[in-house]
Design brief:
Shape: globular
Radius of gyration: 14 Å
Strand content: 35-45%
Number of helices: 3
CATH topology: Protein Transport Mog1p, Chain A
Structural class: alpha+beta
Length: about 120
């Protein structure tokens, strides 16, 4: 739904969500405002990469923002939001982290290094 809402393209949203296995999210109050952290788990690294690519399109459509890739982390900066997208393998599973923070925030609202993925 997130992808379709911003892309307005059912086929693109469907392609980018193939292989989605599970997700969890948390809303966090920070001194600068609300932050959102979303963890998605994918069947294959290719599925995760297709989702990340679609997120690039979402950020362009939503904020007119293009990514800056630093050390494997895609960063999108807008006047009001700072968004980071990163991927890694956790417990043999491809995982994508999407963190949306108030502009000017320098640290994600949760420690992504402590995220665990349960076996199927």
């Amino acid at each position: 739904m997130f992808l379709f809402h911003h892309l307005k393209d059912r086929d693109a949203a469907t392609r980018a969500s193939v292989g989605w296995d599970a997700d969890r999210y948390v809303l966090v109050k920070t001194p600068a405002g609300n932050a959102f952290a979303w963890t998605t788990v994918w069947d294959t690294p290719l599925d995760a990469a297709e989702f990340v690519s679609a997120l690039d399109d979402v950020m362009l459509a939503r904020f007119r923002a293009k990514s800056v890739n630093t050390g494997g982390v895609r960063r999108f900066a807008t006047a009001t939001r700072a968004i980071e997208v990163s991927s890694r393998d956790i417990g043999g599973r491809p995982v994508v982290f999407y963190v949306d923070m108030p502009a000017g925030s320098t640290t994600p609202p949760i420690d992504l290094a402590k995220v665990q993925v349960s076996a199927r």
